[in-house]
Amino acid sequence: MKPILQISDLHVEPVGKLAYARANTARRMIELTEWLRAHEEEYSAIVVTGDLSCDGNIDSYHLIDAIFNSLSKPCFMVPGNHDRRKPFLKCLPHFCPNVFSEENLSFSAEVGDYQLFMLDTLQPGIHWGAVPDAVMDWLEAELEKTDKPTLVFCHHTPVKPGMGYMDEPFGNGERLIDLLAQKQNIRLCTGHLHRPVATLAKNKLAVVTAPSVSLQMLLDLTPKGGDEFVFETPGYAMHAYLEDGWVTHFGQFPFPSDFSGPYPFVNTINPDA
Ligand SMILES: [Fe+2]
Ligand SMILES: [Fe+2]
């Protein structure tokens, strides 16, 4: 079966407004759509792991809705810390069907031979993520029901990446890692770090992070790192289930990148506080 394509951290602003006064993320959506159409025979579904909008504004969600509605493959979305749950659910309900509740947009989906879980880790007004107890209980019960190769997607990463400001807490992270590590043929796929990152959490669970479609985080592994972006080549993750289990490939989008920066991220949490 064809792989699952993961893209992340679009940070879309409405047409005419630059993200962080520098990045034309609305135009990036046009480039992205062309690429997704040209490569649609290479993947079976798309998962977008959060920070779809730069500040949860409704115009960005309308733009995202129009773009992803024009594609032929199934597409699933979860919010990140830059998103706002209400407009997200109002504008994009067909990309997050049968959500856990209006307060947590987690859901599951079957795509052919694969089982997917999309976890909503957004905490309004907070930069870092969490999975509520009730959602963990639901996930635990759902995982019991399936033997299919499984991918679990969420925006935040429950493993500290050694990138200064991005070394954040993750609510119920230990429970999530312990639960997923009990399963065979499972992988946790995240975003938020704006870089391709691969780890083995507690030596037992593979966690992979997709780079951003729009802005890459400066690779600064010091205590002051994790707060600036650069215009490096954007990318994606492709998750294939093969003879030996899940294999994640990181690809690059052929979009113009001048490698300028670093520039500061500003207003990095959603305005729902
Ligand atoms: Fe982001
Ligand atoms: Fe984020």
Walk me through the topology.
Blueprint: E1 4-7, H1 25-38, E2 45-49, H2 58-69, E3 75-78, H3 85-91, E4 107-111, E5 114-119, E6 129-130, H4 133-144, E7 150-154, E8 170-171, H5 173-181, E9 186-190, E10 197-201, E11 205-209, E12 216-217, E13 228-230, E14 235-242, E15 245-252, E16 263-264
Bound molecules: fe (ii) ion (2 copies).
One fe (ii) ion binds next to loops.
Second CATH tier, the architecture: 4-Layer Sandwich
Q: Sum up the overall morphology in one term.
A: globular
Alpha-beta content class: alpha/beta
User: Count of DSSP E strands?
Assistant: 16
Cα(first) to Cα(last) distance is 42 Å
The largest beta-sheet arranges its strands as 4-5-7-9-11-10
User: Mean pLDDT, rounded to whole units?
Assistant: 96
| Order of H and E elements | EHEHEHEEEHEEHEEEEEEEE
Name the CATH class: Alpha Beta
* Number of DSSP helical runs: 5
Low-confidence stretches: none
The CATH topology label is: Purple Acid Phosphatase, chain A, domain 2
Name of the CATH superfamily: Metallo-dependent phosphatases
The hetero molecules present are: fe (ii) ion
